[in-house]
Specification:
Pfam families: FGGY_C, FGGY_N. There is one protein chain. The protein is of the alpha+beta class. The chain has two domains: 231 residues, Nucleotidyltransferase, domain 5, CATH 3.30.420; 218 residues, Nucleotidyltransferase, domain 5 (2-Layer Sandwich), CATH 3.30.420. It contains 16 helices and 24 strands. A hairpin with a 3-residue loop joins strand 1 and strand 2. The longest helix has 25 residues.
């Protein structure tokens, strides 16, 4: 019987499920929207039961025709999610997503109680209010009744694993962004949880992301519409899955992802911390003895979306056509439309066109927007170089890769060749790649990468640009 993998990517706005074979082909694909519940006080939550319902629906639909051939389910999920559950493992509130702003309310107060450099040295995480570390403190101060009733503090993926297996599990990559996992020991950090005033027994068990867990209980398997022997792998976070799915496990290969937000990271055999005071690098654990070193930016595809919807009322193809007519004519765009994660830039930063003259047209403005995002990634690349991390080429994923012009701009701005795979959903392929390795189909992740990741286009830097 054929052993196939069903990958599920739990996103902030969409949940995607697909059946992936051992050659990296996506045999089926299903998408389901994951609505966010908001209010005027910064709330941005997923209803946990609605989210699990979307997971079940996506699995059922993607698995149609493969119900008896699926051997492994591998989930990936967004970072910074937090949901407290009680003694009976039932949710005490909605799931706080990465878009939830309420922890800002107590952020500065909590910062004063900690040694920020010590937290960074231990966890690899530059303290920002997005992290569950700050969300738990907010609960403690503003929702104390929930904090006191909480048996486990879980991430979005931890909650799905709990619903599937009946026990609270997590893994190191999603836990790297909590702000309270020690990225050196891959265990909960004593100092970080002590300043929160919680014990390790209120956090889920950390299991290696390439370790296969137990079989799905029969009742759960029936709920998902599956009929074979199905196990679960803990998997990794969504950005890590994208990185693996575009080939970042190869040596000296960087990964960029150009979605609404963006990232620049490299898989590295040791944990690296920024040697400067600015803490520009976030050090996450990836999988299988590799750390994912780099950082992310808030403003990538959102810049083109803003230009499309609010400035020019044009399609993405029309934007690219205008930008292709020439250079930016010395027009600069600082792309911080939603502030920025870099603590030296901060949340109050904004977008700026600089050098605007009556000779500039929409093509210049669009191209300046593209270049501004590229230089934001260049700042992350410079931080990696400053810490002696070598990169010979880049693999790219995300919706931005559909624009050859933008990929050419990125290649020239970064001064590195960029390779783009032909995979529509690299996170699903990345999770499956990890799964086939865990099942023993491939001896190494490098072998799995070379068999499952297929390059479609290569963009080479232009020296004159």
């Amino acid at each position: 019987m054929e052993n196939l993998i069903l990958s599920v990517d739990i996103g902030t706005t969409n949940l995607k499920a697909g059946v992936v074979d051992e050659k990296g082909n996506i045999l089926s694909l299903y998408r389901k929207e994951t609505p966010i519940e908001r209010d005027n006080e910064g709330k941005a939550e997923h209803n946990p039961e609605v989210l699990f319902g979307a997971f079940v629906e996506a699995v059922k639909e993607a698995a149609k025709g493969f119900e008896d051939k699926i051997s492994l389910i591998v989930p990936s999920s967004y970072m910074f999610g937090l949901i407290p559950v009680d003694e009976n493992l039932n949710p005490l509130m909605g799931m706080m997503t990465l878009l939830d702003l309420r922890a800002k309310e107590t952020y500065e107060e909590f910062l004063k109680t900690m040694d920020v450099k010590e937290v960074y040295k231990r966890t690899g995480y530059t303290p920002t209010f997005h992290a569950p570390l700050f969300k738990i403190y907010w609960l403690k101060k503003k929702r104390n009744e929930i904090f006191n009733k909480t048996r486990f503090f879980l991430s979005s993926k931890d909650f799905i694993l709990l619903k599937l297996l009946g026990e609270p599990f997590t893994e190191p990559s999603i836990s790297s962004a909590t702000g309270y996992m020690n990225v050196n020991t891959l265990d909960w950090d004593d100092y970080a949880i002590s300043i929160l005033g919680i014990d390790k027994n209120r956090l889920p068990t950390i299991v290696s992301s390439d370790k296969i867990l137990a079989d799905l209980p029969l009742e759960t398997k029936r709920l998902l519409g599956l009929s074979g022997d199905v196990k679960v792998l803990t998997g990794i976070y969504d950005g890590g899955a994208v990185g693996i799915g575009i080939g970042t496990f190869e040596e000296e290969v960087g990964a960029i992802n150009i979605g609404t937000t963006g990232m620049f990271r490299v898989a590295y055999p040791e944990a690296i911390f920024d040697k400067e005071e600015s803490m520009r690098l976030q050090t996450y654990y990836l999988s299988s003895g590799k750390w994912f070193i780099g950082a992310a930016i808030n403003n990538a595809g959102i810049v083109l979306k803003w230009l499309r919807d609010n400035v020019f009322n044009m399609s993405y193809d029309e934007l690219t056509a205008e930008a292709s007519k020439g250079d930016s004519s010395n027009l600069f765009f600082i792309p911080y439309l939603t502030g920025e994660r870099d603590k030296e830039i901060g949340n109050i930063a904004s977008g700026v066109f600089f050098g605007l003259k009556n000779t500039h047209n929409k093509g210049h403005m669009i191209r300046a927007g593209m270049e501004g995002v590229a230089f934001s990634l260049r700042m992350l690349y410079e931080a990696l170089k400053d810490n002696n991390i070598k990169i010979k080429e880049i693999r790219a994923g995300g919706g931005g890769t559909k624009s050859p012009l933008w990929m050419e701009i990125f290649a020239s701005t970064l001064g590195l060749p960029i390779k783009v795979s032909n995979v529509e959903e690299p996170a699903l392929v990345g999770s499956a790649l990890l799964g086939y390795y865990a099942m023993g189909r491939y001896k190494t992740l490098i072998e799995a990468t070379r068999e499952m990741v297929k390059i479609e286009n290569t963009y080479v830097p232009s020296k004159e640009k």
